[in-house]
Amino acid sequence: MTNKPKPSTYIALLRAVNVGGTGKLPMKDLTAMCESLGFGEVQTYIASGNVIFSSDQPAATCRALLEAELHHYAGKAITVFLRTPDELAAILDANPYSDKAPNRTVTIFLDAAPDASVIASAKGRKEEEIALGSQHLYVYYGEGMASSKLVIPAASHGSARNMNTIAKLLLLAEKRRLR
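Above: the chain sequence. Below: its structure as tokens.
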């Protein structure tokens, strides 16, 4: 008898879904999509395009499958950023603003490692602080995002989540390891 390896847990972060009236996607539809792709233990978290699931497929395959299904559903490309629980834990551990309000600190998920030019290209910066991560940026919005005029050109293709959301997604994903 061979032991089948346990499926991997992934956290998918969708770009521009249910934010500011764009990209309407009910979470029940996202759940059904993921299940139709063969993903297991599908769980969404808040309506901003966060879904946790398990799969035997590699991350790149899961991302491609989900992006294709989302494109079919929405009629336009929807970028998916896929991370593992270990990657989310590393983001929280490396947060340079961990002493600041977690609801005013965001991670902007990117497809590639940012370089220092990302910070230099930021416009409208006042009290906001920006730091580089492995495949993400950290941004602390001292006065809050609503009043900020900060524009980070490299972030236009990314997807932001605040530290509270990242911590909750990690908690939900970690609960699976205990089962």
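Residues 59-74 form the longest helix (16 residues).
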